[in-house]
Write a structure and sequence with these properties.
Distance between the termini: 51 Å
Radius of gyration: 26 Å
Helix content: 40-55%
Oligomer: single chain
Largest sheet: 4 strands, mixed
Number of domains: 3
Number of helices: 18
Strand content: 5-15%
Strand order of the largest sheet: 5-4-3-6
Structural class: alpha+beta
């Protein structure tokens, strides 16, 4: 018998009906549906999953007595035992459910109608729970309305279907600048200082021989996010899948590993780590920790000279911009060659007009800072592996100016020049590709 038993309340009946309906199409083959029907089915399945997860979360939040009756640590553990599922995942849902049930009804409502996924809800709730205690109830509600609208796509100038978890996380981190800009900078400074202190307190690195494989040592490290991002920046200089082909084409020696494109990322980065250590200049140790690669930091000039405020560090681990404290940015300036993208300050010429066909290194850095990743809709290829593309072809009078350029991965760059595809520029700045009929 199903663990739902034989109750006929509305909720249980709806679940049983849904299960019976799906059981009735178990033998049906989606491959026989038309393309448009399959597109709709895929979208509806994601919405249905969100509704099911929301109902499960809501039920778990109201079922502490179930765990008590059965002597389970929590209701998630009991459900996992009864259904053979992973308790860690259910406990993660239970944590979100408790927060939603306690304070964020609009998140629950959006999930209940299938407009918000669990991953989106988790990011939104984390951002809302992190709001400072001095933010009043009205501002908290405005924050919830704003983030839910960004996630569901029910706001002006938001992509259809809303922002995904990765973009929502960045927007949730900046929600104070929307609802309470007068306190946002001071709160950012306090939050980032606390994160800095907590990260440094837990920083560690352990090395021990790998017992099963002689000749290998296991390195386990916990480091602050900006340090991890910096290491990934260095390693990716060795592992970029374009690095070897570029050095081959130009006839110049390069650090690229010809096998990097075929290796899993963790293997490629492991070999790159070895190469990085081998290339350190002993004559420069320990004063500055070796010769550093350029790190791109985005910071207002006034914040660079004050303790208040935050900076943005291009983070190859998250394929986006990571917030760091202004103090950390100044410390970074002592140990690496920084390219300061000082907002409002003087910099290299970024508009070249018709004088030059190819985008300059300065322009590519600016595009990387602006676009973060390939601007094709839904593509997450990081900016460091993308190519600069003219929105208006240079051969047809286009200009090599920053506003006329966009980053596209190699795959979508080819599509942009493929006459078989129609390209639509969306309000968000992303590009949508559709095969012409």
């Amino acid at each position: 018998m199903s663990i739902l038993g034989t109750r006929t309340d509305r909720i249980t009946t709806a679940v049983l009906d849904a299960r019976a309906g799906l059981a009735g199409v178990a033998e049906a083959q989606p491959g026989f549906l038309s393309q448009s029907d399959r597109e709709r089915l895929l979208v509806e399945l994601v919405a249905l999953e969100a509704q099911v997860v929301e109902l499960r979360m809501r039920t778990m939040a109201a079922s502490a007595d179930v765990a008590s009756v059965h002597g389970a640590r929590d209701v998630a553990g009991w459900v996992a035992l009864q259904t053979g599922t992973e308790p860690v995942r259910l406990r993660s849902e239970l944590k979100v459910a408790g927060s939603v049930d306690r304070a964020w009804p609009l998140v629950a409502e959006a999930m209940a109608r299938g407009a918000l996924s669990l991953e989106q809800a988790r990011v939104i709730v984390a951002g809302l729970d992190a709001l400072p205690a001095r933010i009043d109830a009205d501002a908290r509600t405005r924050a919830e309305v704003h983030l839910v609208g960004l996630g569901t796509g029910e706001m002006d100038e938001v992509p259809e279907g809303g922002f995904g978890p990765r973009h929502l996380r960045l927007l949730a981190d900046r929600i104070l600048h929307v609802i309470a800009p007068e306190v946002a900078e001071a709160e950012d400074a306090k939050r980032l200082a606390a994160l800095d202190a907590a990260a440094r307190a837990k920083t560690s690195l352990k090395m021990r021989p790998h017992g099963d494989t002689p000749g290998l040592t296991r390195i386990t490290a916990l480091v602050p996010d900006p340090i991890a991002a910096r290491l990934a920046t260095y390693l990716d200089a060795y592992t970029s899948p374009r690095q070897h082909s570029l050095s081959t084409e130009t006839g110049q020696a390069g650090a690229g590993n010809p096998d990097a494109e075929r290796l899993p990322q963790h293997r490629a980065r492991g070999l790159a780590f070895c190469a990085l250590l081998e290339h350190l200049d002993p004559n420069k140790l320990p004063a500055h920790g070796g010769d550093a690669t350029t790190v791109v930091v985005n910071i207002d000039h006034d914040q660079l000279t004050k303790d208040l405020g935050a900076a943005g560090l291009l983070d190859p681990l998250q394929d986006g911009e990571q917030q760091i404290s202004a103090a950390h940015a100044r410390r970074l300036a002592c140990t690496a060659r920084i390219l300061p993208v000082v907002l409002g300050g003087k910099s290299e010429v970024l508009d070249l007009g018709r004088a030059q066909r190819l985008f300059s290194p300065a322009q590519r850095k600016a595009l990387r800072l602006r676009d973060k990743c390939c601007r094709a809709e839904g593509c997450t290829i990081p900016a460091r592996w993308c190519e600069a593309h003219h929105l208006d072809p240079w051969s047809q009078g286009g200009k090599t100016d920053l506003k006329d350029g966009v980053l596209l991965c190699s795959f979508h760059h080819h599509l942009a020049h493929d006459p078989a595809y129609e390209v639509t520029r969306l309000a968000s700045g992303d590009h949508r590709y559709q095969r012409r009929t």
